Structures are given as structure tokens and as C-alpha cells.
Amino acid sequence: MSRVEAAAPMFHRILDANPAAVQRALIDARDRFAGAVPDDALARMELVMAEILNNIAQHGTGTGKEPAADRPRHPPVTIHVTVTGHAGGLACAISDNGPPLPSSCLAGPEQPPSPQLAALRSGGFGWVIIRDLTRSLFYFRERSRNVLCFNIPRREDDIPLQGGDPPVVRAAGAA
């Protein structure tokens, strides 16, 4: 008689790029993996996904943090989120039909900003957090969609002190 393995938990959601839909997706993803992965990995996944999804909702739609009447708006943006549990952690893929991700987002600073500079500016640390908490960060654009894939390690010990892997960027159609 063959033994059937329990399927790894999986989460998939298609949502509009707006703060309420992002918040609901984050709550549902956390609920889906609660108890299936360590709390620390769950918290890291939620933080990374919140940074990415909120960036899409704010910058990919042209609304910014605060809507302004004179700011040009982009067509509606739809986000696809997939998270799959596996032995090493959580494999995540996020895609959207917004404008291309600026290359400066993935190019990490030579060194983190000084604490004095950090105290003076607001924002801009999302990609530092994303790079530091993920492994195998990979971005490409295909046709009119951005695709960002990464892994959240099951254990925090699996993340190097200097941050995650350098991101891989592939142009559409490249092998």
C-alpha cells in the first residue's frame, strides 16, 4: 500500500491594486500558513509581501501614498499572488500588469544608509527589507506583466547577516 503525503499549503489570490485588497490578501495569506510554518517565517513573509504589494498599490497605479488630482493615473492594476509552502520555507511569486519596476529598486546600495541619514528621510527602505529577508529574489518583465519571485527561508538562520542573495533581473525573452 502506498503512503500519500500531505500536500504543502498553498495560497493564490488575484486582487485589485488597492490598500483594502492588499490588507485582506495579507490577512488571508497569514491565516493560510498559520501553524504550517514557524511564526518567524510567517512574519517575514507578511512583511516582505506587505512591502511589495503596497508598492504596487501606491506606485504601480500612479496614486502614490496620497491621491492627488494633478497626478496622472495608470490603468487599473491587477495583482496575482501565489505562495507555496515547501521543506525550506515559502516560495512566493507576485505578478502585476502595472508599469515596469524601475531598475534602481533591485540595485542595492553599496552600503546601508547611515543612521543619521535614515533619521532624516522617510521611505525608501522597502527594497532593503525585501532583499534582506528573502533568498533567490528574481524579477523579470514579460509582455505587459512584472513578475517577482523569491523564497522566504523557514529558519532565520538561513539568511546571511549581509542580507539576501543579490537579485537576478532578466529581460523578457532572455533565457
Structure description:
With 175 residues, this protein is α+β, with helices and mostly antiparallel strands. It is 31% helix and 25% strand. The chain has five helices and six strands, in the order E-H-H-E-E-H-H-H-E-E-E. It has helices spanning 19-33, 39-60, 103-106, 115-120, 126-133, and strands at residues 10-16, 78-86, 89-96, 135-142, 145-153, 168-170. It has a six-stranded mixed β-sheet, with helices on one face. The longest helix is centred in the first third of the chain and has 22 residues, at 39-60. The termini are far apart. The model has no long low-confidence stretch (mean pLDDT 81).
Task: Pick out its properties.
single chain, alpha+beta, 5 helices
Radius of gyration: 17 Å
Overall mean pLDDT stands at 81
From the structure provided, what is the oligomeric state, counting identical versus distinct chains? single chain
Helix-strand sequence: EHHEEHHHEEE
Helix content: 25-40%
Q: Number of DSSP strands? A: 6
Give a quick rundown of the structure.
With 175 residues, this protein is of the alpha+beta class. 31% of the residues lie in helices and 25% in strands. The protein has five helices and six strands.
Secondary-structure map:
Blueprint: E1 10-16, H1 19-33, H2 39-60, E2 78-86, E3 89-96, H3 103-106, H4 115-120, H5 126-133, E4 135-142, E5 145-153, E6 168-170
Parallel strand pairs: 4-6
Antiparallel strand pairs: 1-2, 2-3, 3-5, 4-5
Helix pairs in contact: 1-2, 2-5
